């Protein structure tokens, strides 16, 4: 079996990860990248070394799919599933539902491979992992997250990115695609969220109120060009309605759901592959793990808050063919909710669940008013050539409205934005009326504040000089001086406040990276100051980080159970003590001082903290290595700046 370069590299990285003593590795590649081929080759290599391998799947179709790839790799295997006889092969492909009732020898397997590993957090899977404790684990998935968006760090200890959708599209291993999002009247604002996604019952009721199926049939006729399509629906009832509508329009459409007999599902998929069925209407079946070839069109009729589900669904139509351009007909706004499927995404084993983030704009997505194509903001539609009318909204120049607009954008230095009128990418530096930023002064003649932004090249130069890094070894004064010089040599762009679209994914990833650099309370306080937050924000974030490490229950994090960063106890940090920390740089230490003398100096700075707070805070500063302490001749502790 001839492997592609990125597949060989993925296998090599998995091997290196196990050699580095990781015992539970997660490999992620996009849908259609050949994950089954990769783990079949890993199985073959493990078998050659005499290892026993267990491959875990959760659907019968995945047993057949894994078996097909193992056969092509010349690997003999047995199957542990209802209706199959047990065998003594070194390699076993097992249904989770069957294996959980046949656990007998805890040392039977050396390697466990988990297909569609985002399901591995379920109790049934965990029971198997707990039984085979001595085996190392390899999980493979296209979406390394739960339905809620939370990471999988409680199961896996290392994440390997095998490849990404943009890379594979560029190399021709995945197809390019176009997205069309016709307008609809869906109102999901009051829909409840259950386990990370919209309430199925409430969404179904909303879909009944707003008939988008008729539009779906018409747009498939107009844009889908009668090519093989998969329609994703919310329930069997909804799916049956969609199926009937397509049949009434003269198409061969069939409903496929998880409640059907597996043989019936296989027959439907085979009929779809050979052209007997034009449209496959799916309810939670074809969205993951199905190797469906020849599909050109994805019809999204199920709104979802789950980015993982969205990526799995659209990924079904990206398998490449000669001159193929896949079509996504998004009738429920999932593209605007999650961004384009071929955007770069950064995954993390310990990422938190996604919640509704007020004030954060949706991904930078624009819809052509003529053909309803969806694209990244630019003045001319790349599909039909329609030129968007460029107009500027007349703003009432009231302070309250402008402040609200700025708060809604939530921009911080380095945030990526798009100028909507031109489609050009910039990086935010500061608002023109923000007097806290060097190089900007409030100008009463300017009626509306605008954003001063770096071009992509300027931002690259700015970051190469490390001027964006508040955690660098440079003092604040030195970094400020260097920034002054840079701004004098470079003319920054001016972007009107109403012409800004935030690139949300990049913004969140950048901020997440910045927060992961915070190792001590002092780091968090620096970040709070940069973002304009109060010190309490830093304390709260620090506590949340501490709690997050507790929940992982991993040995490498156990040292943080009682302390974090430089060994400072979280429970000893209060707003009053943070106030002392903020005033610390302003204190004039002349040699050694005792606590009473420090208290006196703080009173001179008009601080009202108590002496007891001073004692405890000085101890914190010693632990942070910002002070040295010793006993004086009277046995009192005295302190001096390092």
What about the largest sheet?
A: 8 strands, mixed
What coarse outline follows from CA principal-axis ratios? globular
Content of β-strand: 15-25%
> Mean pLDDT, as a whole number?
80
Q: What is the helix tally? A: 21
Question: What is the distance, rounded to the nearest whole angstrom, between the alpha carbons of the first and last residues?
Answer: 63 Å
What is the radius of gyration? 29 Å
- What is the tally of beta strands? 25
Task: Describe the model.
The structure is a single chain. The protein is 36% helix and 17% strand. It contains 21 helices and 25 strands. The protein is globular and about 90 Å long. The protein starts with a helix and ends with a strand.
Summarize the structure.
By secondary structure, this protein is α/β, with parallel strands linked by helices. Helices cover 36% and strands 17% of the residues. The chain has 21 helices and 25 strands.
List strands and helices in order, with pairings:
Blueprint: H1 5-19, E1 24-28, H2 35-48, E2 53-57, H3 60-72, E3 78-80, E4 91-95, H4 96-99, E5 111-115, H5 123-131, E6 136-141, E7 158-161, H6 165-171, E8 176-180, E9 193-194, E10 197-198, H7 200-209, H8 213-224, E11 229-232, H9 236-248, E12 253-257, H10 262-273, E13 279-283, E14 297-300, H11 307-315, E15 325-330, H12 334-338, E16 366-367, E17 373-375, H13 399-409, E18 416-419, E19 424-431, E20 450-454, H14 456-464, H15 476-489, E21 493-496, E22 500-502, H16 504-516, H17 521-531, H18 535-552, H19 575-584, E23 593-594, H20 595-604, H21 611-623, E24 627-631, E25 637-641
Parallel strand pairs: 1-6, 1-7, 2-4, 2-5, 3-4, 5-6, 8-15, 11-13, 11-14, 12-13, 14-15
Antiparallel strand pairs: 8-17, 9-10, 16-17, 18-19, 18-22, 19-20, 20-21, 23-25, 24-25
Helix pairs in contact: 1-2, 2-3, 17-18, 19-21, 20-21
